[in-house]
Amino acid sequence: MDRKTFFGVMGAGLVGVGGTNRFAGFGGAPRSARVGSIARDPGLAGSPLPRLPEVSGADLTLTAGRMTARVRGGATEVWSYNGQFPAPLIRLRRGDDARIRLVNELDEDTIVHWHGLDVPEQADGHPRFAIGPGEAYDYRFRVADAPGLYWYHPHTHGRTAPQTYMGMAGLLVVDGEEEAALGLPSGEFELGLVLQDKRLAAGGALRYSPEMGPDRMFGYLGDIGTANGVADAQVEVRRGAYRLRIVNGANARIFDLTLGNDLPFTLLGSDGGLLREPVELRRLTLATGERADLLVDFSTLRAGESIMLRSAEFEIPGMMMMGMQGGGRGRGPQGRGGGMGGMHRMNGIPQGGAMDLVEFVVSAEEGPKIELPARLDGSLDAPADPGTVDRTFRFDSRMMQHTINGRSFEMDRIDERIPAGRREVWEFVNDGGFAHPVHVHGGQHRILSREGGRARLLPWERGRKDTALLLPGERIRMAVEFRHTGVFLLHCHNLEHEDAGMMSNFEVVAP
Ligand code: C2O
Ligand code: CU
Ligand code: CU
After folding, report:
1. Together in a domain, 265 and 300
2. 225 C-alpha to ligand 3 centroid (Å)
């Protein structure tokens, strides 16, 4: 396997000391948060960050099955594709005809969904297309999407959360000529990162065992951060520019990404490809399902210095509080990650707790220098909000029920019918106390506005989007337009909410 190792530099394990968050992802007003340094446990050697194995989607077989891998500590069963963990990164070119065969070697049903791609109904991985053990499913679609970072994961009825959690989550990159012309870092300087959080049992065993109560209401929150399947991930980087292509592939965890030393980074793109222009940030909120395409310049750092990519502590105003009963079962993150002040955790680190994800250790070698153009994707306009809402979707979680407009998902019930090719404005409303990353299938959409809560669009929401984080008290308007007819899904990308029925079928009909 293509793993980079760099023993010998580890002694220099200086972890970034954060400062004030100039860019507060939540809230708005600058405030201080404890992004502070966390002493490395000297006995704890990091794990080399696995590089994602790459395959082409032009003619590919993906075999879902069980295998053994290491997340932290001993070996554990994981579920993945093609016997590779982390799952392979699929590369496609715009205009390609993708031919992908899914083979199911699990002992339960599964189906793959290409998150963010605009594909025909039969290729979208709706749960009604799930295949049983030993069966195969053929996907055929023309890649029409803008160059960008997409991803794939199961969409099995009621089993999306456990299957994704056990490791079935992979990146999918669409390449294209206009993007290649920008000369962004590539090859060893382009790093695909699947960020997740996990809960490990004794001996390092990965197990999905949600309990009634908080696991069902907040989602399955882990107590360690992982990158490309491993905890305590470390990667050696040269003193130069890197392109980090990040997906939040967690079940429920929202990451508020920061770099140690408050190192700034440049946002290039979000869910559906490049932004109109690059934006410098120090903090970026990435909810489950969302992607970020970042440029990080390590050239200002000294050889041997190390910088942690981590999720900083944050608060969600209006969020239902985690129960306070006792210390819970969560094992400590062994001196890493962070607590929530005096709050006790029940299972995993509560939403908003700090979590380390990947440590970059800077080598003495020089890396590439990049001159970014002022425009990345000049074709991206700023969509105007016409002020009228065509449909409203209320996301509500209470009493262990997760509903959209008061209803739970039913496989055969169509909740909305929309003519193909018609631009509509959809409004998502959250009057409750939980966070809901709202995801709409059928390609890319544009977020128009947010009222309540954070009350504005964030820099990473200005491009093409398929997922929008809807916090308590917020209303988001999204412009949608569908090309393919057929039945597609709209759902919460908190996978426990989704599996519990916070999902809805809409049918795109011929105009
Ligand atoms: Cu990534 Cu319907 O989901
Ligand atoms: Cu999707
Ligand atoms: Cu939700």
Report:
1. yes
2. 21
Do residues 130 and 150 share a domain?
yes
Residues of the domain holding 486 = 391-509
**SS3 of residue 162 by DSSP:** helix
- End-of-domain residue from the set 178, 196, 230: 178
> 292, 299, 222: which is closest to 258 by C-alpha?
292
Region at 400 (left for phi over 0; alpha for psi -120 to 50; beta for the rest): left
Regarding whether 216 and 327 lie in a shared domain, the answer is yes
pLDDT tens per residue, range 277-336? 999 999 999 999 999 999 999 999 999 999 999 999 999 988 876 543 333 333 333 333
64 domain-assigned: yes
Other CB atoms within 10 Å distance of the CB of residue 223: 24
Which residue owns the Cα nearest ligand 1 atom 1? 115
**Within-domain flag for 249:** yes
- From the alpha carbon of 441, which atom of ligand 1 is closest? 2
Query: b vs e for 345-354, b when ≥16 Cβ sit within 10 Å of the residue's Cβ?
Result: bbbbbbbbbb
Q: In which order are the strands placed within the sheet that holds 291-297?
A: 230-231, 224-227, 190-198, 241-248, 291-297, 265-270, 273-281
Q: Does the CB atom of residue 126 touch ligand 1 within 6 A? A: no
CB count within 10 Å of CB 280 equals 11
Residues within 5 Å of ion ligand 2 by Cβ?
A: 115, 441
Q: Are residues 491 and 416 in the same domain?
A: yes
* Tokens found for residue 301: 């750092």
Q: How far apart are CA 183 and CA 371, in angstroms?
A: 9
Residue 365: how many other CB atoms lie within 10 Å: 11
The DSSP 8-state label assigned to residue 11 in this structure reads G
What is the domain count for the chain? 3
Per-residue model confidence as pLDDT tens digits over 71-123: 999 999 999 999 999 999 999 999 999 999 999 999 999 999 999 999 999 99
User: Which portions of the chain are predicted below pLDDT 50?
Assistant: 1-44, 323-345
**CB neighbours of 134 closer than 8 A, spacing ≥ 6?**
104, 105
Q: Name the residues around ion ligand 3, CB cutoff 5 A.
A: 436, 492, 494, 497
